[in-house]
Amino acid sequence: MSGHGDAAATTKDDGPKMRVIRVGTRKSQLARIQTDTVVTALKTLYPTLQFEIIAMSTTGDKILDTALSKIGEKSLFTKELEHALERNEVDLVVHSLKDLPTVLPPGFTIGAICKRESPYDAVVFHPKFVGKTLETLPERSVVGTSSLRRAAQLHRKFPHLEFRSIRGNLNTRLRKLDEQQEFSAIILAAAGLHRMGWQNRVGQILCPEDCMYAVGQGALGVEVRAKDQDILDLVGVLHDPETLLRCIAERAFLRHLEGGCSVPVAVHTAVKDGQLYLTGGVWSLDGSDSMQETMQATVHVTAQHEDGPEDDPQLVGITARNVPRRAQLAAENLGISLANLLLNKGAKHILDVARQLNDAH
């Protein structure tokens, strides 16, 4: 740590100046819990540094009467935080990785991807349906989700259910479920429920056969200024190599498909015996048309130093100098290869129709 970045400094008890690292986050309770997790890890690694958390609202937090897929903004939960980063008001920002677009604005990079929690989706049932599963809910029960990806897959799997948009932070959505009679159940990311300490509300975990997850779901990403080498070095030690490689493959797959929140795209990844497995799929909005394939690539996740400068060290918006470059490239190529396989089989038509229908409704 050379200490020549833009972070502020403060004097404590008339002693030497202690460097302050300012950490940006969304204001929601879940975002604060996630940010606290990252800050606690950094405090353990750097006990001589101080960390100040700066919370702010984002576009996605403010617009709650419109489905995410309808807003037409790629950086719904990140733009305001990135503006603060750009203005040097914060030194790093903690995000749910699935909120970060696969192409970041110029000048930014993801400097750390922390160890992934469960990437799966969870079903939370209305109190009167506790003990049920999606399969055993009554005919025409309404299930709330803000995700086209979930709705498309689950509509295909459970045609007796009706899926309807529900917005708001976790607290708001759970309150809508419990206090109103509109929804029989809602679908949420299992990781968020676990981080909030609400495991007891999980009525069902959806396996990949029922519902594959979103790109980056369950992982936290730390966004920094791409040229702020000091902060990059500081957060880079938080990279979890296996999570990193899985998320590079997932993000490369999504980026090459040109997918986003306005089309149903989902993934499933695993690392086993030095092999990275990636399953990816695309769906029509109603789930009636779909396509998915699985590919694998050889990766090695042991850390090592590799010589040679990199003109652009970023892969799908991520900088990770402490994980072998060859493994990262193999993960990226895997995502691109799988996307090409699906595109060659007609995935573009499915996605184009889904996009047009979503825009029209």
Layout of secondary structure:
Elements: E1 8-11, E2 17-26, H1 29-45, E3 50-56, H2 59-62, H3 68-71, H4 79-86, E4 92-96, E5 108-113, E6 121-125, E7 142-144, H5 148-157, E8 162-164, H6 170-179, E9 185-189, H7 190-195, E10 204-205, E11 220-225, H8 229-236, H9 241-257, E12 265-272, E13 275-283, E14 290-298, H10 325-344, H11 347-360
Parallel strand pairs: 2-3, 2-4, 7-8, 7-9
Antiparallel strand pairs: 1-2, 4-11, 5-11, 6-9, 6-10, 12-13, 13-14
Helix pairs in contact: 9-10
Question: What key phrases describe this protein's structure?
Answer:
alpha/beta, five-stranded mixed sheet, 23% strand, 11 helices, 33% helix, 361 residues
Structure description:
The protein is of the alpha/beta class. The chain contains eleven helices and 14 strands. Strands 1, 2, 3, 4, 5 and 11 form a six-stranded mixed sheet that branches. The protein has a five-stranded mixed sheet with strand order 8-7-9-6-10, sandwiched between helices. The longest helix has 20 residues. The N terminus is likely disordered.
**Could you give a short account of the major beta sheet?**
6 strands, mixed
Low-confidence regions: 1-6, 9-15, 60-76
Radius of gyration over all CA atoms, rounded? 21 Å
Number of helices: 11
Short description:
This protein has 361 residues and is α/β, with parallel strands linked by helices. Helices cover 33% and strands 23% of the residues. The strands form 3 sheets. Strands 1, 2, 3, 4, 5 and 11 form a 6-stranded mixed sheet that branches. A 5-stranded mixed sheet has the order 8-7-9-6-10, sandwiched between helices. Strands 12-13-14 form a 3-stranded antiparallel sheet.
